[in-house]
Amino acid sequence: MTARGMNAAGKGLAVCAWLLLAALPARAQLPPGKVDPDGMTFDDIKRALPEYFAPPGGGGAQPADIPDVFGPGAVLRVGNVFMKVTNFGHCGNFFTNLSSDPAGQWPGASGVEYLSTIRLAVGGVNRQATDPTAIRRVSYLFEWRPPTLDRVDRIYRAYDGIINGARFVNDDKDYAADGTPRIDEDFLDGRDDDGDGKIDEDFAALGQEEYTCLMRDDTREALAATFNEKHVPLGLECRQAAWAYSIPGFQDFDVIEYTIYNRSGHTLDSLMIGWLVDMDCGPVSQSNFFSDDFDLPGYPSGEFTQITSVNDKRLQDSTMRGGGNDPTNPHDVSADSALCPRFTLRINGFSIADDNGDQGLTKGVPSFLLINHTLDPLGKNGPTRVGFLAFRSFTATTPYVQGGNPVIDQQRFEFMSATAQPNNIDPVSGFISQAPGDQKGDYVAWCSTGPWRNVPDGGMIQATVAFQVQPGDYQTSLHYRADYDRYAAGALPWSFMKDTYKSLDDALTIQVAYEGIWGLPPDPSLDNPKWPFVNNGHGRETGLIAAKGTGSFEATPDCRDFAPRTVTENAYDWFDYDCDYCTGAYDGRAGKGMWHYTWNVGAPPPNPDTNTQATYNYHANPNRVVVPAGDAKVTLAWDNNSETTADPKTGVFDFRGYRVWKAANWTRPVGSAGPNDDDWSLLGEFRSFNYFVFRPNQNPPDAIWLPANYDSAAYVANGKAACPQVFVPNYFDPDSQRYVGPKTVPICLKRWDLWDAQNGLVIRPDSTFPCPGYPNCKSDRGLVNTPDLGCDEAGRVDANKQPKPYIDLRAEYPVGRYQLVDREVKNGFIYFYSVTAFDSCGSGSSKAELGGRRSAVEAEGVVPQFSTARSNGTVWVVPNPYRGYADIAKRPSSWDLTPNASDPTGTHIDFFGLPTGKWTIKIWTVSGDLVAVLHSTDPVNDSVRSPVAGPGGQELPGYNTQQDNPYDGQARWNLISRNGQDVVSGIYLFTVDSSKGTQRGKFVVIR
Q1: 198-246 confidence digits (pLDDT tens)
Q2: What's the whole-model pTM score?
Q3: What is the architecture of the domain spanning 868-1006?
Q4: Can you tell me the distance from the alpha carbon of 304 to that of 294, in angstroms, rounded to the nearest whole number?
Q5: Nearest CA to 343 among 386, 309, 367, 382?
Q6: Where do the CATH 2.60.40 domains begin and end in the chain?
Q7: Is the peptide bond between 881 and the residue preceding it cis, with omega within 30 degrees of 0?
Q8: Residue closest to 282 by CA, chosen among 352, 351, 357
Q9: d(Cα 80, Cα 506) in Å, to the nearest integer?
Q10: CA neighbor of 209 nearest in space, from 258, 145, 165, 259
């Protein structure tokens, strides 16, 4: 890593971050030619966020709190769409000169952007307001803030299967007063949301990577800021969750869910949720890449028929029917009625596309999709179907009255409520009707949904959207509307639509994933009637209950009621208000209601935590035991988190092994946040030795662990090693530390050993890293994986083959449990590593393996360092001479990177042979002028590292230092003088002052 922002000590490397930010306006603007949709400049951001630009001691937040917006922040990167998430009312990165994070790149860190920003707006009517101008207001973008400036109100990371985050599970085993379990009630936000004295003990995690945060529109900071006009809050809280998937078929989209709570203290009327969406297509390396796009309103949109899967109880097979005489439901469906073999899905979306694909660089089409929002089947208090209320697409700088951007609340409310005409929504189909623009440019879109009337204090509405990118081009996409009309008329087959329009195909994949399935409630240990929100009749999808203290009310009859029903406050009663038997599945014969499993997506084991992650590999981390950077080597270490996380759908421990990846020769292409897919190479695939057989004739029955295909009669001791002779194609000899080619050797394994069949390398768990809290280890529960169990979506076990269920406990071990040393590295160069986990389920031709995605960002790079153990009293400079050719590829210092906002030179020279202990390097001209001063304690990557919450919750600096460990005998300088200028050609002298005395040397710079 280069010495980003590393000035010499005359000014001091400890120059406060606010001074650095104060110097940014000259360069911290939008990309040349780019106009912000709201006309914002960097100065406008400073005025909108004064607390983040106040000098230390001025009452504002410390600059260390900025990274979620301005520096390296939360980026979804387990899938192919790398999208930045913030807690300031938007996702994306619209001031790229302030942060090198991708806004919405695809595929991976490719340097090709498809997004600038998605900005949240929530409008509503406050009838309590006495000022007429305060009645109809919209909370937008930076008017959404973290509730406080405390670190607790940061962005939180989770994943499907994380402890306390299992969906549809009562993690903390608590119950409401009526005996129903409280499920997923404590949102992941660092707060005690359910009032039980515990924090984040029962939340719902989604995807293989998820970021959650709280935002409010009535904080002190939001009220004090001015954004085009004075902000008047509605009194709202937003719980934002954004997630991504890593499994095949689900990698090309990110999901954002907004849950809006009314915290005003009174009822709010006509709440609406809207978004400004600025999608830009093109490689960041090209100037004005965003200016040659065309819009594609309504692509993809439409209604499509979906076949009901066999494990979805919407299928309503005959065993679930009670017939017309069913005593649990006298109006039950007859035995010969339709069995719901299919259902209809609605796709609501819009896109943009590059005009010509940028010579093959811009291969995708980005889309914004409305996946779901709160519905009212009766249409009294909200929409009856998912869809947009208003839409408009326009080129940047188009005035509002000409169909352009609303810039004040009055205009935003007018647009969002569809008062401004045209609203560009077909009144019959509900789909976008605006025609595509005929001129290319920088397109922006606004959309809204709602309204929801009379939302009480404490009430909630929700909307879910997705940002996707799929292969496509503008010319093909232009034909979508005509082809959809032909498809709807039966003139085109579905196969044509699917194959021609990949954006549509992926949009349906997302919608099907959201729709999920209906099935029995997820916790078989609880009585069905006690499970909350389980219906009591066929087709009954709407549950009603009287408010506490009101006694009861008379509910509107549904499609099959002969008379109104009385609903009490004691229990939910259920109604078929959408007149559709295919929603609200019910088992008429058993008298059991069904549970709706949304986002029914498979999941590989989560990738393990490693010692190269920025949250582990920082100098101040007291728990950093395995330092990755060594002398001409990198020691990669990881934990066993992947092995202790049961599959969230089956409850099975289906972990199978790890793949270790490496990226070298990365030059930081323009716009790249880290290595792209083509940069990675596989170092090894290590499978876990974890075979077992069940012995039903033992008393009691038990299981033993042994090699596959081994004689179980002769192998009964758990943990005993087995050493079969194995042919290894490219054997790695541990004695000579080199590859010696094909060889047949004995491979000795014990349970939990990892081994690579290609080279015979065995990684054994390191017993010097005990589980935290030993001997009271923290353990996770799950079903044992067998060939008969791993893929069973219902989590059922064959009673003839093993106990039902067979529960295993697995202890959690820290980073260091497994270690791999890579010696194919050079000191001073940057390398990236990623450890991905994969599972294994099924057998024979049905065997499947799902794995995580390899990824890394610049902050996770590792730079091997010359060891102090080899220091002999001589310090030298590499390269010497330094030749600063404009073409980086021609420089002898081939470790140089492309300059960016946080590293304006991209280059460095390194001092080798430094001694142990503290030291100071002073650099001089031959005439005796002091050029720069370096200290062993100076940070080297603070511009790409955020502060980190330490083991005790305290905030620690998250950067590495020049002498990052006692054996680090190497330091770097970015050729910037203490006055902030590039040094010129010439001969330079240096001195090194340490406990060893003073050493002297010289080097040459040639520009």
Answers
A1: 888 889 999 989 999 999 999 988 887 777 788 999 999 999 999 999 8
A2: 0.81
A3: Sandwich (2.60)
A4: 26
A5: 309
A6: 868-1006
A7: yes
A8: 357
A9: 13
A10: 165
